[in-house]
Amino acid sequence: MASRRRTLLKVIILGDSGVGKTSLMNQYVNKKFSNQYKATIGADFLTKEVQFEDRLFTLQIWDTAGQERFQSLGVAFYRGADCCVLVYDVNSMKSFDNLNNWREEFLIQASPSDPDNFPFVLLGNKVDVDGGNSRVVMIDIHFIAFSMNIFSGVDC
């Protein structure tokens, strides 16, 4: 039996502080959710192996701090990224409005070879909280709404 080659994909998760980036990563990789909020300092990453069709991928998922004081660390963490996940809180228009800044800053710091075609995914979190409304106005970005609290929409 021939061994399958694994492909490493580096995924960066970005968004304002408190939108659920760490919860997303922990739920997707470890199937664990915590109601306790603990701000990420700098960055952290977990890996997950996934199979798609006949290919095996190792996802290296980077959870980054949402506080502005850590944004200068981006160059070190963003380089070599294969995809960027932009996360916002559907109950916070400010977190949605800030997504374009996160996207632009990512493109500057990551310096991908083809920035116009770099893959971004937009995730609206906290749909389980009253008042949550999906706000999607960007073009050519895949969108997924989810709630870490009720574990829905995470196994995409």
TrEMBL record:
One of its GO terms (molecular function) is GTP binding. SMART domains: RAB, RAS, RHO. InterPro entries: P-loop_NTPase (IPR027417), Small_GTP-bd (IPR005225), Small_GTPase (IPR001806). It comes from Brachypodium distachyon. This is Ras-related protein Rab7. Belongs to the small GTPase superfamily. Rab family. One of its GO terms (cellular component) is endomembrane system. Its main location: membrane. GO terms for biological process: protein transport. It is found in: Endomembrane system. CDD domains: Rab7. It is a lipid-anchor. Keywords: GTP-binding, Lipoprotein, Nucleotide-binding, Prenylation, Protein transport, Transport.
